[in-house]
Each structure stands twice: as C-alpha cells, then as structure tokens.
Amino acid sequence: MKTAARTSIAFIALLIIPAILLPGCNQSRTPSLLYSQPTGLTILGLDGATWEIIDPLIERGELPGFKALKERGAWGQLETYVPTESVSIWTTLATGVSPSRHGIQTFTRRIPGTDQSVPAPGTDRQVPALWNMVSDAGKSVVCVKWFATWPAEKVNGAMLSPRLEEEDAEPRTWPPELFSEISHFRHLSTMDQLPQPPGRPGMARSGSAAAPPEAPLEQSPGAPPMLIGQSQVESTMFDDTSVWLAGKYVFETYHPDLFMIYLKSTDRVEHFLWGAHTDFEGDPIRKQEAEVIFGWYRYYDGLIQQLLADPGRTLMVISDHGMRAQSAVPEPYYIWDIDFDGILELIGYLNRHAGGTDWDTTRAYTYRHLPYDKSFIVRLNMTGREPRGSVNEDMVLQTVRDVIRGLSALQTSDGRPLFASVGTTDAPGEILCRLSDDVTLDDAFESDGQRFIMRDLVIRKGLPRGIHTDAPPGIIAVLGPGIAPGTRVTGASVFDVTPTALHLLNLPTARDFDGRVLIELFDPEYLAAHPVESIPTYGRRTVESRLSSSGGDERMLDELRALGYIQ
Q1: Residue-wise DSSP of 467-535
Q2: 173 and 152 in contact (C-beta within 8 Å)?
Q3: 3-state secondary structure 312-380
Q4: Which helix (H) or strand (E) holds 432?
Q5: How confident is the model at residue 157 (pLDDT cuts 50, 70, 90)?
Q6: Of 110, 212, 378, 473, which has the fewest Cβ atoms less than 10 A away?
C-alpha cells in the first residue's frame, strides 16, 4: 500500500491536468487501438448530469473532456423510467434488470412492525450486480460510493460504500481495513476551489461574480450541510472531491479490470439552483448560481480528462436522469406517493394516535412501498414476528382474507376498482396490492359510507427548484478501443448499461437481462472480432431479511428530505 504522504502529493499533482493528457479531439486512433482488447473499463456515474447543460458549455469552448467523448466516442441520451427514484435507477444501471426484479424500488425501507424507516440497504438487492458478476468471473473490481452498496460487499478487489463518515456503521469498506487508509481523504477536499452559491464565501474561480451579502441562497429547510458550498461542509464529511481522491487512490492501488465510481453533486446543485443555467444574463445572483452548476461540470470534465489519459482503457460516463423545473411539472405529487397506511386506517385495520401507529390495536400495516410496480406490500402485525404483534397465529388466515376482502371492495366513485389485484405472497401474513393503472389523484372512493379523495392521502414533500419526477433522460458516452468515433446512439436505456459493460470486459451478457448490449457503440470490424456472447442468467442472491437502524441513518435521511425525496 502507498503511504498517505506519497498519495497526497500524487493527487495534488493530478489536480493540475497537463494538456498532453488529452489528445486533440480530431486526432484519429491507430488501428492497434481500434481492434485490440481493452485493458479495462471505467464507469463514471454522474447523478443528474444532462446534455442540456453540457452542450452549451461545449459550444462556449469549455468542457474539452466531454467534447472528446462526443467527437472520438459514441454518445446519446439514456432513457430512464418513472418514477425516477435514483436509488432504484442506479441499481438498475448496475444489474441490467427492472426494479421489480432487483428489489430496490425506493429510497427507504420500513423496519418491520415500527414507524421507523432507514435508507434502503444493499442487502435488499435480489440479483447480482456488476461487481459480483465481474468478481465471480475472476476479474478485479473497485466500486466507489455506488447507491445502495452499504454494507460493503466482499468483492475481488475493493468497495467503498456510500457510508464513509465516522458515525457510520461497519462494514463501510471492503476489505474492512481499507477504511483506515482512505478516511484522511475527507480532509483533502478541494471543494472550496469551486464557485460558491450566493451568500457563501470562497468564490475561487477568477471572473466569478462577487456574492451580494444581502442575497443568501434559498434552499429547503433542513438542507444538510454537505449539499452545497464548502462553508457548509462538515469536516467529517466526504464530498465529491474527496471521494474522487479516495477512489483514485484505491484504483491506483488495485489496478482493477472494472472501476466504478459514483458522484452526486450535479444532481444536488441542480435540485437547488435549476433554471439559473439558462436565465442569468443581467442578474448577478442568478449568474452566481449558474456558475455553481457550471463549476461542477467543469470539475467533472477535469476528471474525464484524467481518465482519458489511458488510451487502452474504455471510459463510460453515465447519468440516471436529467432535471426539470418544478414549475414546469403540473402535478409533482404522483399516485405512488399516497399514504397506504391511511387506506388501511380508513378500512379499519390500522390505528393511529399522536405518537404514530398504535401497534397494540393495529392488525395490518404497509411493509414495502413498490412505486415502480404501483404496488404495496401489506403485512399483518403478527405476534412473535413484529415487536408488538396483535394478530395471533390462529387468526392469521382469517385476517388475511378479511384484509383482501376489504381492499378488493374499494371502488372509485364511478365504479372502477381501486386495485388491479390484491392477493397473498409467499411470505406468511403478507398481501400484495397493485393500484389500477387508470386511478389518478383526482379519483374519489368510498369506504363505510364515507367519501375520500386520493389526493388527500398523498404524502406531501418539500420540493426544491429542480425535480425529476417525470423522468427526463440521462446521458451515456463511451470512448475506448473498438468504439465507433462520433456515433450518435439512439434508443439506449438504463437497462443497457450492465450488458454493454460486460461485453466491454469480454464477459457474456445474460439472456434474462431486461436490457441489451449497445452494439451500435462499436466499430463493425471490432464487433466482428468480438461477437456478443450470452449465458442464460447470472442468477439471484439471497436477500437479508433482518433490518434495523444503524449509525449514519439520520444524516442520510436528512439529505433525502432536503432533496424532496422523502417526507
């Protein structure tokens, strides 16, 4: 292992990118690079990155790294899905299958038999991810901060989970002792060199507008300190600049076949500052906000230039979605945000008091929320399983029948069923309820002679300026040996990343993936020499059923609330 001192010097040097690292955009590749087997694959995940911001900056003569990707590689939009829950999409990007199959559909999970929710753990994932597939094939992998990878998994290489703070629970890294090697990188943050929002000190870039003291940044109440601005970053936190330094260190230590790193700041600044990038002329405050957004794209462009320094290694840059202005979305609260416990309360199976659920008298509660499938899993509050169970074993079958009957009887005012299906699962005392596709928030339904409107059951969340509830597309750009230069890719989706990544690593795709290998990325001669191979499946993995709270939960939940993802 390298010493921390040597590593710090190396990374400081990396921050200054020599021009020789990035060949001229019009320089053609040699045949040996075009047809040779790549030496490895790097996947750079940039949450919320969009061509809507990248392309105008390229036209202004900026972002040479992104420009190289478009001119010398293949690129296009990456279609995503509704609801655009980032944790679900990043898991799809890493598995090649839908949320129905990989099992991580939303940001939080309820601890059974309680009112407490925790961030969705990686142990909920029901299928192998890229890092598992690559490790099992005998290749090496380094995975850094990918969504829903805590607890860190044992891989043939290294994994840094999203939880790298002092208060977080183990295992934060794999191998576990790696945490002590990378923890000091949080103190090497270069975030203060980036443009800061109005009302924050430290506008480091030359030419950026001075911050008017009377114009503080408007953001959601309770916005966590790591979101925007060095003055808000706690000394114990990893921000994207220190994550990059730690990830680069681990990459250079392990030299993996697959290097995956996830960075989130584009999404964060767009949530809070969206719109400034297109409407800032004559307004110094908006200009400063725009510079914050542009600053992060410039920073990521610098990382891309560093990654392109190895011409034998393939670079894939992806994002999970773009962004929309909140004001441009007529109905930000969708049907999957309804309070399903409220429905159970209306039909008499759940009781509440001022402190939350009255577990002593509640017979059924919402166990899982599955927004991709417009479904909910209801569990009976069973004695011996739930902490304060109220349904005895001899009453389980009858209570299940009663709940199914009560939910199935619910109809809209014009006679349509509220649920397309209501039935049992394989688990004892568990019921799966799927909302009808044509039900809207404006629909009303009746229960026990009372009329209720679906909209009144919506969980209201504070929304920032930029949102992605209607799933604008993300980006994909690939450059490396065998990639057809200047190719515009159409029809690519988040389901296609894993199959394509496996092919880039000379590994077979699986016929049960929901996506495909993006063969249009490749030069035809290269593809002929490296045909797509497939196997039936990469199988499934055992889901850890136990779920409890752990260190760091509240910090992560605070961040999700500030972004408008949860209540």
Answers
A1: E-TT---EEEEEESTTBPTTEEE-S-BGGGHHHHHHHHTT--EETT-SS---GGGB-HHHHHHS---EE
A2: yes
A3: CCEEEEECCCCCEEHHHCCCCCCHHHECHHHHHHHCCCCCEECCEECCCCCCEEEEEEEHHHCEEEEEE
A4: strand 430-435
A5: very high
A6: 212
**CA–CA separation, 553 and 163 (whole Å):** 9
Phi, psi of 527 (to 5 degrees): -65, -35
Q: Give Cα 550 distance to the centre of its chain.
A: 21
Per-residue tokens: 219:
């953001």
Per-residue pLDDT band at 26 (split at 50, 70, 90): very low
pLDDT at 350: 97
pLDDT of residue 79: 98
pLDDT for residue 337: 87
Partners of 158 in beta bridges: 142
pLDDT at 352 over 90: yes
d(CA 189, CA 233): 10
Is the Cα torsion angle 285, 53, 372, 508 positive or negative in sign? negative
Dig out the tokens for 26 from the structure.
């019009």
2-23 average pLDDT score: 38
Structure tokens at 399: 């209570």
d(CA 517, CA 511): 11
Q: What is the largest CA-CA distance in the chain?
A: 76
- Give the pLDDT of residue 25: 39
Residue 207 has pLDDT above 60, yes or no: no
Provide the mean pLDDT of the chain: 86
Strands (E), 240-321: 258-263, 314-318
Tens digit of each residue's pLDDT (9 = 90 or more) over 239-287: 999 999 999 999 999 999 999 999 999 999 999 899 999 988 888 999 9
Cβ-proximal residues to 44 (8 Å cutoff; 6+ apart), any chain: 261, 263, 300, 303, 304, 307, 315, 316, 317, 318
Cα dist from 523 to 42, 70, 107, 526, 565, whole Å:
19, 15, 39, 5, 41
Q: Return d(Cα 561, Cα 541) in angstroms, integer.
A: 31
| 85-99 mean pLDDT | 97
The amino acid sitting at 507 is L
> What is the average pLDDT across 3-23?
38
| CA-angle at 246, arms to 298 and 561, nearest 5° | 70
pLDDT digit string, tens, across residues 405-439: 999 999 998 999 999 999 999 999 999 999 999 99
Looking from the CA of 89 toward its CB, the CA atoms found within 13 Å total 27
Report phi then psi at 478, rounded to 5: -135, 135
Give the pair of three-digit tokens for residue 172: 């934060």
Question: What is the model's pLDDT at position 199?
Answer: 63
Q: Are 217 and 198 in contact (CB under 8 A)?
A: yes
Element (H, E) at 282: none
Q: Is 477 exposed, middle or buried (0-12, 13-18, 19+ CB in 10 A)?
A: buried
H or E, element range at 557:
helix 553-562
CA distance 492 to 516: 9
